[in-house]
Amino acid sequence: MLGLMQDWPLRLHRLIDHAARHHGARPIVSRSVEGPVHRTDYAAIHRRSLALAQRLAREGVKPGDRVATMAWNTWRHIEAWYGITGAGAIYHTLNPRLFPDQIAWILNHAESRLMFCDLSFLKLLEGLAPKLPHILRFIVLTGPETMPETSLPGAVDYESWLAEADGDFEWVAGEENAAAGLCYTSGTTGEPKGVLYSHRSNVIHALACNAPDMLGLSATDRVMPVVPMFHANGWCLPFIAPLSGASLVLPGPKLDGESLQSLMQAEGVTFTAAVPTVWLGLLQYLEASSAPLSTLKRVVIGGSACPRALTAAFERRGVHVVHAWGMTETSPIGTICGVKPEVAGRDAEGTLDLQETQGFPPFTVDMRIVGDDGAEKPWDGTTFGNLQVRGPTVTRGYFKAERDALTPDGWFETGDVATIDPAGYMHITDRTKDVIKSGGEWISSIELENLAMGHPDVAEAAVVAARHPKWDERPLLVVVPKAGREVSRDSLLAHLAPQVAKWWLPDDVVVVAEIPHTATGKILKTKLREQFAGYFGVP
Ligand code: AMP
Q1: Among the four given CATH numbers 3.40.50.1220, 3.40.50.12780, 2.60.40.10, 2.60.40.230, the one describing domain 13-254
Q2: Where does the chain hold its CATH 3.30.300.30 domain(s)?
Q3: Mutation choice for ligand 1 from 195, 300, 304, 331, CB with most ligand atoms inside 8 A
Q4: N or C: which end of the chain has fewer CB within 10 A?
Q5: What's the 430 CA to ligand 1 centre distance in angstroms?
Q6: In CATH, 433-539 is 3.10.290.10
Q7: Closest C-alpha residue for ligand 1 atom 8
């Protein structure tokens, strides 16, 4: 027997319909790519997204077509996501920081038909266009006054193109399991892989992640997603904000410390989210300038492990750090470090201990740790295991791949190694390939990096495995000193020694001017490993 409740497919337009109707006047503020700060609201975004869907339909875009975006976080990018999915098509985000050949490969693999792009990327795309046979037209996210000459096929400025539709349109209907978004993993090894979200998975993810112990946004929040919409589904914030009625403050192309601080302060931002490297930049600016950050209450940090020193620096400024773990494949949030009663009421140091963990999953994500034999490992806080997850917001396979990506019993292998403590808090130890295997024991590179970052003269730290004649691998610490400071091997090892077991201490320290990063702002361990694997003389 079926229930007697209404059939209401969980389509993404429901979110912007809701925001327009119940939170219509809420400000959406953007730093535009052209420069000036732009202001709109959910009601206007809703109207323009409808027009965009209508205009796309007139362009011949059909349900299931892929429509690419290469754009910063602005109101126009939000309109594009809702307009594309409202036309039944699939937003396909492109990370402009990837190598041009990789961008071309991804666009051709996805067979995207149209592309919305920011002015910032015209040169890049003009160079690539001859290699992109599927893209019929480039819609440049600007108005007629600022539209430059370009050789891009079918190029048109967004505002003129959009003005050709009046918005008298019904969202294209479809089932909730239809594909809605496509995002390729950064692919540090092998070709990038496409993760294909559905309307349903995005709506469920937005609902689940907004529970009070998760992100818990409200209509009184002013949310600044610094994480670009081209990283891992924009951490779902373009869906969670309209769902909760929160105001959005979008940073556009300027992600340096000064630009972020000035926009946050001027617009009263209460909540923000990004990878650790962005926040290191902001805090360095705050230290150097004494500029205020008085409205910010919470910052979500994820994408790579959040160093304890970074958490402590925010907490000292009265900003609560919410550590989160996730992957492109998990929509992307897998766990969030909320506070359960079992761990509440800790002192400042105890709270920092907790914040070093990546927390526990929202409802709809299930997790476990297993050994290489597939047997489940205990939740004792010390036993390492391979982290696996499952649920309706976790991928089961990749776009155009023949096989599912799951274990025979239906779990997704994350490629991360973790512990889980008795209260259910998960702590990432390493990527499987980054863990250092020394004399049969495992050393966590993340843990060592975290501690090294606590040294007062260190701006950034990475620990990699270097081959060793006796122990197979030993840790090598690579550090970048803070501007104007010097840091020595001895002072670093003296700093680490009281905090780790003797056999965990790095065998050497290399001081460098810069550590390489991936296109999503993570430390590029593959490159460092290549560079330093033979450091101890073993070829
Ligand atoms: P991506 O799909 O590019 O977002 O990369 C996902 C990977 O980033 C995960 O599998 C982890 O290795 C890493 N990651 C994400 N969040 C964290 C975190 N809070 N701590 C440690 N590693 C993380």
Answers
A1: 3.40.50.12780
A2: 433-539
A3: 304
A4: N
A5: 9
A6: no
A7: 303
Name the CA radius of gyration of the chain, rounded.
Answer: 23
Locate the ligand 1 atom nearest the alpha carbon of residue 358 and give its number: 19
pLDDT (tens digit, 0 to 9) for every residue of the chain, 539 residues total?
999 999 999 999 999 999 999 999 999 999 999 999 999 999 999 999 999 999 999 999 999 999 999 999 999 999 999 999 999 999 999 999 998 999 999 999 999 999 999 999 999 999 999 999 999 999 999 999 999 999 999 999 999 999 999 999 999 999 999 999 999 996 555 789 999 999 999 999 999 999 999 999 999 999 999 999 999 999 999 999 999 999 999 999 999 999 999 999 999 999 999 999 999 999 999 999 999 999 999 999 999 999 999 999 999 999 999 999 999 999 999 999 999 999 999 999 999 999 999 999 999 999 999 998 999 999 999 999 999 999 999 999 999 997 888 999 999 999 999 999 999 999 999 988 898 989 888 899 999 999 999 999 999 999 999 999 999 999 999 999 998 999 999 999 999 999 998 999 999 999 999 999 988 888 999 999 999 999 999 98
Cα of 43 to ligand 1 centre, how many Å? 35
CA of 273 to the centre of ligand 1 (A): 14
How remote is the CA of residue 337 from the centroid of ligand 1, in Å? 14
Q: Looking at ligand 1, which residue's alpha carbon is closest to its atom 1? A: 327
DSSP string for 300-317: EE-SSPPPHHHHHHHHHT
Cα 317 to Cα 325: distance, rounded to the nearest angstrom: 23
- Residue 265 Cα to ligand 1 midpoint, Å, equals 29
| DSSP sequence for 181-206 | EEEE---SSSS--EEEEEHHHHHHHH
- Please say whether the beta carbons of 431 and 416 come within 8 A: yes
- Closest residue (by CA) to atom 23 of ligand 1? 304
**Among the atoms of ligand 1, which is closest to the Cα of residue 431?**
12
* Placement of tokens 């050994």 in the chain: 371
Catalytic residues: 185, 329, 437, 442
Query: Measuring from each residue's beta carbon to the nearest atom of ligand 1, which residues come in under 6 Å?
Result: 185-186, 232, 302-305, 323-328, 332, 358, 414-416, 428, 431, 520
- Which residues of the chain does CATH 3.40.50.12780 include? 13-254
Cα–Cα distance list, 78 to 169, 259, 299, 469 (Å): 18, 21, 21, 54
**Helices and strands (H and E) in the chain: how many:** 15, 24
